[in-house]
Amino acid sequence: MIIDKVSKCKVLFATTYLLQNRMKLNQLAEIISGHPFRTRITDDHRGDTCVVQMKDLIRHGVDWNNVVKTQVERVKESRYLQENDILLVARGNRNTATLLDEVFGPAVCSPHFFLIRTLPSSGVEPGFLNWYLNQLPAQQYFERSAQGSDIRSVRREVLAAMEIPSVPLKQQSTIAALANTLYKHQAKLRALIDNDQRIMDGIAQSLVSD
Question: How far apart are CA 101 and CA 70, in angstroms?
Fold first, then answer.
């Protein structure tokens, strides 16, 4: 069932990608740098602002339970995270994107991210844009354009100039929904694999414990 949906979606997207116009990312979304912390980010019981860092990323989301709170001064209003914002890893070997389905309390992201916020008039669904940013064409674009030898870095102007396929909203929703279904399916498979490994580890441990 899922495989059939994937095949259908591949044809749908491939046809659309070839036939539709494309627009630059900065025509579709705001691109905002993470908050420029001048010192090391530390947990502060007096703080009221959550700070999303690289360590807080989990597969297709943020582990809000482990996000630190601290005191943050002079934050631009646009830098406060909102639902449906996209966090793009600006530095690293893979520049992955994460869609924020929910945000807890006042929150900002560290300078390791670009915050991407779709414009109301863009006609782009955040879920679709997030999906596309994680796909091979986008990742190849980042790789070609990145700076740095050991740890590559994506410049803001490079991200702004990235071309995004103009896809009808209905098709965007179909692709985003399918991607979400696949993410959940993968999570279940990983849970099963992890459980099987724990069983094997338990058996091995019992052999050496007797």
Answer: 22
